[in-house]
Design goal:
single chain; alpha/beta; Restriction Endonuclease; 2 domains; two-stranded antiparallel sheet; 7 strands; 8% strand; elongated; ABC-three component systems C-terminal domain-containing protein; plasmid; ABC-3C_CTD6
């Protein structure tokens, strides 16, 4: 068993629901909307993936998170009760349609008798109906005893129980999206962010800092450049500008990766560290605007700024300065 699977087994109930929400978002683009409801009055729903804007009046998937104590697996009685909740709340009008897929998320696994029922879906309806009084009637809600009405029974009998599945920690971590989601929930150190590369043409996302650098280079030669593209074609400053664009897109790739894969706030902290690390150098008196840019780049390269304990590559720290310029926090030109 992998260390990632072990970590998944050890997280608490709230973390498990948060993990499943993030994991489902990353592994599938089929959902119109994903909601995490899990609470005392969740009506049998922890994490929901709505396939259309119709939500509970259309198709949806249900991920029911069952974290068990150390060494314990999800049992048959608890699972049948959870299924019973869905049919009860469906008949109560909480959701007009039943889920197209029902997934027990049980990191520590499920007991053999439950596995037999799930793997023989035609037996689940009878098990739920026959065991209703024992497993469901007094367990679905504390407010009342829930009897197996004809309406609930009919809904159970007409349901396709091949829609019911289960997932364990070893099964989940085989998915490449599991690692980043768990890293974000637990604040673990993610893998190295992928490198970025600058496109040949100036992109809308870099327009603000690139136009400031256009002014910087124009001051350096005493002739205004019409556009950033003109700078790229310049014999003396074209290569320097290309280096700045590479740094910008290195930082852009870094930001995208860590926005998805690290704990909330970690990226903002890193950006602020870079800002406070270079702003005094930026505010110093410099003979030219270009000297200011170069001084900030040199200082950014030696900043000790890191993200969740991981050393950040030099072009990322330098490129983050251009993102600060793009956002108006640090300007290269008036």
């Amino acid at each position: 068993m992998t260390s990632l699977a072990v970590r998944l087994m050890e997280i608490d109930d709230t973390q498990l629901e948060e993990f499943i929400e993030l994991w489902v978002e990353r592994r599938s683009a089929q959902y119109d909307r994903i909601e995490r409801i899990g609470a005392a009055n969740d009506k049998g729903r922890d994490v929901i993936g709505f396939l259309t804007s119709a939500r509970h009046e259309g198709p949806w998937h249900l991920f029911q998170c069952k974290r068990k104590t150390r060494g314990s697996k999800l049992g048959k009685s608890e699972a049948l009760c959870e299924l019973g909740k869905v049919f009860f709340h469906h008949r109560q009008g909480a959701y007009n349609t039943l889920p197209e897929k029902y997934v027990f998320v049980a990191p520590r696994g499920i007991v053999g008798s439950l596995l037999d029922l799930i793997n023989n879906p035609s037996t689940l309806a009878a098990a739920l109906i026959d065991g209703w009084d024992e497993h469901c009637s007094t367990q679905i809600t504390r407010r009342m005893t829930v009897t197996l009405t004809q309406e609930i029974k009919a809904a159970v009998e007409s349901f396709d129980f091949s829609r019911v599945e289960h997932l364990t920690a070893p099964m989940i971590v085989k998915d490449p999206a599991a690692g980043p989601a768990l890293s974000k929930v637990l604040g673990l150190m993610p893998e190295e962010a992928p490198s970025g590369a600058a496109p040949d043409l100036i992109q809308p996302e870099e327009a603000r800092y690139a136009d400031q650098l256009r002014i910087v280079y124009g001051e350096a030669i005493g002739i205004a450049f019409v556009s950033p593209d003109d700078v790229l074609a310049h014999a003396d400053h074209g290569e320097h500008f290309r280096d700045q664009r590479t740094r910008f897109f290195e930082a852009a790739s870094f930001k995208r990766f860590h926005r998805d894969n690290t704990a909330p706030g970690a990226l903002v902290t890193f950006e602020n560290d870079v800002y406070h690390g270079v702003i005094d150098v930026h505010r110093d008196r410099h003979e030219t605007l270009l000297w200011r840019v170069d001084a900030v780049m040199r200082h950014a390269s030696i900043l000790p700024a890191s993200l969740i304990g991981r050393t950040v590559r030099i072009p990322v720290k330098q490129g983050m300065c251009h993102h600060l310029a793009n956002e108006g926090r640090l300007k290269w030109a008036p």
